[in-house]
Amino acid sequence: MAKSIDVSDLNIYYGDFLAVEGVNITIPQKSVTAFIGPSGCGKSTFLRSLNRMHEVIKGAHVDGKVLVDGNDLYGADMDPVNVRRMIGMVFQRPNPFPTMSIYDNVLAGQKLNSKKMKKSEADTTVERALRQAGLWAEVKDRLDRPGSGLSGGQQQRLCIARAVAVQPEILLMDEPCSALDPISTSVIEDLIHELKTEYTIVIVTHNMQQAARVSDDTAFFNLAGVGQPGKLVESGRTEKIFSNPDNPATEAYIQGRFG
Amino acid sequence: MTTTLQKTPEPFDLKSELQEHQLPLWVPKAIVAGAAVVGVLLAVSGAVSIAQAVLIGWALTWALPIASRVVEGGRKASDRTVTLLVSSAFGLALIPLGSILWLVISRGGPQLSAEFFTYSMRNVVGEGGGIYHALVGTLLITAAATIISVPIGLFTAIYLVEYGDGNRLSRSITFLVDVMTGIPSIVAGLFAYALFVIFFGEGIRLGIGGAVALAVLMVPIVVRACEEMLKLVPNELREAAFALGVPKWRTVVKVVLPTAISGIVTGVTLAIARVIGETAPLLIIAGLTDSVNFNLFSERMTTLPVFTYFSVKFPGVPPEASIDRGWGAALVLIIIVMLLNLVARAVSYFFSPKGER
Questions:
Q1: DSSP 8-state class, residue B159
Q2: Which of A114-118, A255-259, B192-196, B256-260 has the lowest mean pLDDT?
């Protein structure tokens, strides 16, 4: 399990518009890498290009290389559907399927792909995923209830359970706590700490304290001005980025005297 | 000395700033009730006609905005004026509905009997007979039209929303669907007739031809309804499915359609209700018969609207019994449409995603 990602010279476009330019970064396996930076600098766009979710948007495309264990995700013979099976994603707003129960939501990856499963195997998968997401104790007596009846924090953990139930190699998280209260946030941060023993985790966050708390490595994105492409300014160990960054812009952003 | 500069500020009274004169709560009710009483009394006394009495009563309700302007001031008077105008428009819209219902129920209601529903018009002269053959025809032809138009309409809507993405083809389809919405129903009937004449020759009358004509009218309504419903499905759900490694077609079938199903079923039911009362196209292609016909693919087939038309237009001698049957058939048609609307509501209630209501 768990793979590292090597990105080289990645340019990301929306139609003709170059949104993110020239990213080179290595994301180590079984660790948490945080992307920080101001709004509109391309953190989320870059994250979505790591599991080919970017191209779901009309006209969006990339050039460059994203290597996972030496395989280029954008190679000609790569199937985006298989890429997304291997690289799971959790979104900013909790999005459980409203037509499904909690149980079915966790198994959504298997059920939507009509994968045949024995009842006992399915039960084990659901329990394991919900335990990993720290939700088992709260929902084990109401697995047949609709997923949309849970609170926001619970829904987000349900979405995490859904993502880990398909046993991906890598887990991408796009501001997973921005719609949550501090208590739910801390539950999810603890969860990220536990998940990194098994998964490579990449998280986009606007919250600098959160980046400092949960991540091993940090990458700072910035853009020169409106209409200009976003760029990766600097990346490295979180302690170094937060205490002694190489680039003055990084220091300014982290210390809150930006602009 | 200039006194103007030394003007003392007027004492500021917060309470009087916040207070406003207001009509007592009972006044609007009293004015409306009074106007109604005057109208009813005038109508009962016979001094004026009912229409005049209604107009006088309505004119009297304008006392409310006038009183409001005198007591409460401009803003609230405008509010009451617009409220009165909107309620009047609502009442005006209800008049034709109410009068049609009243007329059809009072004339058609006495016709409803076991015989009326179980007998056809075969060999019936004068009194007796029923609408069994027309009921069968209406249900069969409408069901066939639904079976033809729902797959076409639903797949078109799926293409437009999920795959078309505003390209040239999807824009032309949308345009053509809009044009199709405006096709007069008689043209749809002539189209179906011309189509079947190609295969079966002049003078062909078939139930399935009527179904084709109704399907031509239904498809654009179904496309529109399904398109709107599919657009309402949040993109986040599609992305959630994609991120789990689910292919696009499975996402459409297993996530998008189930989420939108209640709206789609409602839309289809309303489309059925819309075409079930069509007369002109069925007159051309399905024809008229007095016998029960269960076979869509052979011989003529009567439907309720066509039956109503002929019962009233060509009643025979003596005409009373036939005209009464026409009213009865019209009432049955209205009841069917009402039931369809109730079914649509029930479906949208039971199929809508749980946990959100």
A1: I
A2: A255-259
Is A168 in contact with A87 (CB distance < 8 Å)?
A: yes
Residue type, A108: A
Min CA distance, B143 vs chain A (Å)?
A: 28
Number of H helices, E strands in chain A: 11, 10
Residues of B within 8 A of A84 (CB-CB) are 242-245
Best residue in A99, A107, A156, A167 for a mutation probing chain B (most B CBs within 10 Å) = A99
3-class secondary-structure state, position A33: strand
How is chain B split into domains, by residue range?
23-108, 118-351
Are residues B243 and A159, on separate chains, in Cβ contact within 8 Å?
no
Per the structure block, which two tokens stand in for B174? 């949308």
Q: Which of B237, B244, B246 to mutate to test the interface with A (most CBs of A within 10 A)?
A: B244
Asked if the B118-351 domain carries CATH number 1.10.3720.10, the reply is yes
Interface check B156 vs A, CB under 8 A: no
Cβ-proximal residues to A112 (8 Å cutoff; 6+ apart), any chain: B241, B244, B246, B250, B251, B254, B255
What is this structure's pTM? 0.81
Inform me whether the pLDDT recorded for B276 exceeds 80: yes
Map out the domains of chain A with their CATH numbers.
5-254 (3.40.50.300)
| Mean pLDDT rounded to a whole number for chain B | 86
* Confidence at residue A2, expressed as pLDDT on a 0 to 100 scale: 67
Across the interface, which of A85, A109, A146 has its CB nearest the CB of B355? A146
Instruction: Assess B317–A contact: CB distance below 8 Å, yes or no.
Output: no
